[in-house]
Specification:
The complex is a heterodimer of chains A (231) and B (212). Chain A has 231 residues and is of the alpha+beta class. Chain A is built from 5 helices and 12 strands. The chains are: A alpha+beta (231), B alpha+beta (212). The complex binds zinc ion. Chain A: This is Urea carboxylase.
Chain lengths: 231, 212
């Protein structure tokens, strides 16, 4: 059952609590969209931890049906569907330094079209919830891809990876704080950041035959630890 | 030609020379310009490391800012270790191993349970060590960012895979940092027993420092 929809314009930041058992679908509203996402658990301390998420599931990218895991070994959300099989988690969020190529921008000159970096927006949103700069962890950059070179070492942004209409859907496994920015990926050469639509709906109940649960023993254990934490 | 020795501190011997036992840790203050060498005494021993601006611990090492700006996944000589504000905290100025991981994170009791099962819950883990040695500097759970794993080998593939491989390190190999500002270096000599990152047998590390 659809609960609500919110459109985040390109280059903006947003945060919202999302209860457990919701499907959160992000939809790219333009080509080369990027959505840098941080998740914080129900206690508002336990952050999404990308290294732990990667090493538990032996992946250097985010794709269904991976489970996004926290500092304290809990499942925060499961990636249940996506039109893309690669969402970047190595490139971090953009800084003011990455906007230098556009020249100066300010509210006074540009009103609400002024350019702000992902980091600025993420810190602002974290701060609204009593968190802040010290809570910055690596984000997932949904819709972006950073290719890993043949030598397994070099990193290069892949332009044109996401097209308008691409989607990714997360299922919340506990009450979360969702923090996101639609600023450009820091390695992108695109000119304008695209917006992202957020659709929130009730998730159907799932059992141990769920794809994220059966994906790997590690994914199942993270989901089980969350089940215990909210029991 | 000059009669001045370009590295008198090295010739004078280290001002810090300490052994960190298996599973132990350290919090070391390194002044700007100081050199800190971590020696893998017995080979294949992960040295989980976090860096903080000594004047402001919120300005701390950022693994993902560091690898993005150098456009390479691994750390080695020449790698500029950046903070979450993109400040250069240190530079790797010497490395006899060749590459070090910074995307694999530190082991924790909770992540060990996820990876290996409930039976490892009460084994010692790096994040316990970070919290124990960090407390004196006000470094708690929220101040723990994503760390460096010196001497650890975590290859990533063009297909987006990741694996934990046997280390490239060997007895006596070392890595050396030069501090770009006054730093706090928080170190855990990894006690992980469940994967090859410590060669299945955690061993001591040596820390040497040169500064005035
Ligand atoms: Zn460890």
């Amino acid at each position: 059952m659809a609960l609500y929809t919110h459109e985040v314009p390109g280059g903006a930041a947003w945060s919202t609590p999302v209860k457990a058992g919701r499907l959160v679908t992000l939809t790219a509203l333009g080509d080369d969209a990027n959505c840098s996402v941080l998740l914080v658990g129900a206690d508002r301390v336990d952050r999404m931890n990308i290294p732990d998420t990667l090493k538990a599931q032996m992946s250097a990218r985010i794709l269904p049906p991976m489970v996004l895991m926290s500092d304290r070994g809990l499942a925060l959300a499961s990636v249940v569907a996506s039109t893309l099989d690669w969402h970047d988690c190595l490139g971090g969020f953009g800084h003011d330094a990455h906007l230098a190529r556009f020249g100066a921008s300010s509210y006074q000159a540009d009103r609400n079209a002024w350019r702000r970096a992902a980091r600025t927006g993420l810190v602002s949103e974290l701060t609204k919830h009593g968190l802040g700069e010290r809570d910055l962890h690596a984000p997932v950059n949904f819709f972006s891809r950073v290719a890993i070179g043949e030598d397994g070492s070099s990193l290069a942004f892949v332009p044109g990876h996401a097209r308008a209409g691409d989607t990714v859907t997360l299922r919340t496994e506990q009450d979360l704080l969702l923090v996101l920015s639609t600023a450009l990926h820091p390695m992108s050469a695109a000119d304008l950041p695209a917006g992202v639509r957020v659709d929130v709906e009730l998730a159907p109940a799932v059992g141990t035959d769920d794809a994220s649960y059966t994906f790997r023993a590690e994914s199942a254990r993270a989901l089980e630890m969350t089940r215990r934490a909210v029991a | 030609m000059t009669t001045l020795d370009s590295s008198p501190a090295i010739e004078a011997g280290p001002v810090l020379d300490a052994t960190i036992g298996a599973g132990d840790g350290a919090l070391v203050r390194v002044p700007a310009g100081g050199r800190l060498r971590i020696v893998d005494l017995f080979g294949n021993q992960a040295a989980d490391t976090l860096l903080y601006d000594a004047d402001d611990i919120d300005n701390r090492y950022s693994a993902f800012d560091t690898i993005r700006e150098q456009q390479a996944v691994f750390l080695t000589t020449g790698s500029r270790l950046l903070s979450t504000r993109l400040d250069e905290l240190a530079v790797i100025t010497d490395d006899t191993v060749g590459r070090h991981d910074t995307i694999g994170g530190a082991c924790a009791q909770e992540s060990n349970v996820i990876r290996y099962g409930e039976h490892v819950r009460h084994q010692h883990a790096c994040r316990q060590t970070f919290l124990a040695y960090g407390a004196a500097a006000g470094i708690g759970q929220r101040e723990l960012g994503h760390n460096i794993n010196f001497f650890m080998n975590v290859p990533v593939t063009p297909a987006g895979g990741l694996q934990f491989d046997d280390g490239l390190s060997a007895p006596g190999k070392y890595v050396e940092l030069t501090a770009s500002r006054d730093l706090l270096v928080l170190l855990s000599n990894c006690p992980q027993l469940n994967n090859p990152c410590n060669g299945w047998d955690p061993t001591p590390l040596q820390l040497q420092g040169w500064w005035s």
